[in-house]
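Suppose you are handed a protein chain with no further information: no name, no annotation, nothing but its sequence. What can you learn? This example shows the usual starting point.
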Amino acid sequence: MLEETQETEEIIERVAALDVGKAELTCCVRVPGQGGSDRRLQEVRTYQTMTRWLLVMADRLQELGVTRVVMEATSDYWKGVYYLLEAAGFETWLVNARDVKHLPGRPKTDTLDAVWLCKVAERGMCRPSLVHPRPIRQLRDLTRYRRALIQDRTREMQRVEKLLEDAQIKLSSVATDIFGVSGRAMLEALIAGQRDPKALAQLARTRLRAKLGQLEEAFTGHFSDHHAFLLARMLGRIDQAGADIAELEAHIDQEVAPFAQAVDRLDEITGVGRTAACAIIAEVGVDMGRFPTPGHLASWARFAPGVKQSAGKTKGKSSTGHGNPYLARVLGEAAAAAGRTDTFLGERYRRIARRRGAKRAIVAVGRSILIIIWHLLADPDARFHDLGAGFYHTHINPERAKRNHIRQLEALGYKVTLEPAA
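A reasonable first move is to predict its three-dimensional structure. Written in structure tokens, the prediction is:
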């Protein structure tokens, strides 16, 4: 039986494709032939990626009446070209290189790659990748840089611990946080030349003073001027990173102000704090029109298993694949945090972790969080409501038990009709 599909055969009359490199790019343009001929006219040129030459290319594309420009996502080299052509009014498409990979067995050059991409684009055989509008892109740059600074500060803190171990100073074995008020006072004293374990231990404050004996033993080592020099440099970098992070967070608050309502709604989700909400909006955006259903968002983020089937059999394990690493990290942290709460998401995490392990539970709960995010961003009036940790016991388990009993009776040859008790 023949069924009508949604696809339509469409030829883009005037299209251009770019093979972008660091110093230059190859531009292929295909336009209709003259006199109503079915033959296509093609032009291939090479331009430098300096702004002046890109403006020359844009003028040439406008002269030829090009409506759509397609390019591959090549490192970060595509960004300047994409933004310039977008500002010039072209319908600019960024496509995944895997979707337009050249056929094997043929020569590969920049010219041939541009021509192939142009032929694929004019027949509508590629799809655009998601490129957020400028405000979201700027917010994303800030949130990603904040995470990079936090990682750098964490690495520097780890170097401090390694340096103390090298000097046989076992402070981290006694104090929970060696960078707290007491720990910093002790480290500053070491840098200043204090080597007496009793004097260093007396710098402890509040609850740490209950461990004065252990602290004296911890400071019995061979801390030298060499260690003091390195420790001063490391603490300086930690302090500078902390100041940069604080300044960056203040700037993020300014950039996220237009999306304050969306941030507040996402902040209500179990495991998602304000910082995570800002990072999620920076990666996903606020316009859910690009994702028709929650499943599309989960698939784009690679929080849904892929399908690899042949001859009626599913091959290999249904892995999710590699998606946006920044979004995956935020969702993973939110899922792990939700797993420690007495909520629906927390109970879901624990149920899956018992049967399938913690990694699969993180992916499953992360997908649930993504679905919640889609509904909250797609409907401005929607608010998050926790179903409660007892939802499985009061709703899902009885239904599952009923289905299992009916299935077992039907397998024995009975016809089951259920009637509610009076």
